[in-house]
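Risk register update: the risk that structure generation would not scale has been downgraded. Supporting records follow, first protein first.
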Amino acid sequence: MVVYAGQGDPRRSMALLWRAEPAAGPRPGPKPGLSVGEIVDAAIAIADAEGMAAVSMRRVGERLGRSGMALYTYVPGKDELVDLMYDRALAALPASYDLSGGWRAAVSSWAREVRAFYLRHPWALRLSQARPVLGPNEFALLESLAAILHETGLPPETLRGAVALLTDFVRGSAATVAETRQARAETGVPDEEWWRARSAILAEVAPGFTGRYPALSRIEAEPPRPGEEPIRYLERKSSQAFETGLTVILDGLEAAISRPS
């Protein structure tokens, strides 16, 4: 299920994201016992444990010992809450990277950190990048990468393409692993059972598979290690593919740097 950011009231959402709420006068009655940060943290905890679909104002209120209605004083609704969740979770990522080892090492660190972020918070992969949240930490994520790539001396149009490529590549790699982990829970079928059944049928219906797809067969030739569970095998292969793909991208940037203007 794709979730689009920015579905709530734009002025209220942006004000909450950037903490630009107008100063309010003294309110009658007891001092509020919650904060926007507490509400967002509770929603993130639910999403981490059960997925984005489990997040509702009622569930968040229950986690905080309040009614769902009590939260509307702080956050207008779930649409605004989703924006806040994504941006707040991104705050855990470094704002800058050490360039003493060169831009290539720094980009590698950025890519691994962001991939690990998505695997800690797989619900964040549900948010479409077609409409960004436009929060400070989302901008900081891109700023940190742009600042590293600026060291290459490449022109802005090349850097824009590099930022887009790296962002999509890291996100796609994380999505493959996250969906592999979620498959059993959502379908009720263990990975080993799924692969065993289809591998046997594929051998029957597609004899001569290796001869028909020789190039594909060569790059997929490495079998699982003895006793390795299918999900561990798939995650290991995905990690290897990520590192290889990252090296290819960085090699491409190196080539672009050395290319005559």
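Supporting record for the second protein:
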Amino acid sequence: MTDILMPKATAVWLVDNTSLTFEQIADFCGLHPLEVRGIADGDVARDIRGVDPITGGQLTRDELDKAQENDSYRMKAVVSRHAEMIKAAKPAPRYTPVSRRQDRPDAIAWFVRNHPEVTDAQIAKLLGTTKATIESVRNRTHWNSPNIKPVDPVTLGLVGQLQLDDVVRKAADKKAKDDAKKGGATLQSAEEIAAQEPAEPEFVPEERERRGAEPTAESVFGKN
């Protein structure tokens, strides 16, 4: 049964303007059959003015005709076209078992090292931690910093692979959009790249050692 607006006022109208049974009216309006009987007798809702559910868009004429022809038929209310606009209840915060809470700093360190594009808010929501803890791991001010090692959160069993992939993909897409808005990376010209690189010394071939004149007996044994 779909809840309707002003059920008692609707019941008053149905009692006064239709041949429906008390049970049919009670079922449609979410009331007890005895309460509907009290409305018919004038003991209940005496000062309430009836409201036409057909004009109000809560009931179709076809549904009413079917119900009046068959006492066992139960009318179905029209679902409001605005029902889909109602926001769902906010999901409860992610719960991490006590046995795995000591693994969260390792998972945070993994994000900091491998995926800096993932925001602290995304990490906090995914791992069920706080931004303060993330900041302490990043700045190595965490009380257990010497023992923290980057470990994949999937390996630690803190999240599923699909969840991790989805967060990383969204963070990468957002970073790409932000970079595009800022104009993106500028390509450097060949001259700029060359200017940044240290100049190599010019290659100068070594001079060949010149051989002197052929030795003579005089130069070897001296003059007599």
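The mean pLDDT is 79. On this basis the risk owner (M.S.) recommends closing the item.
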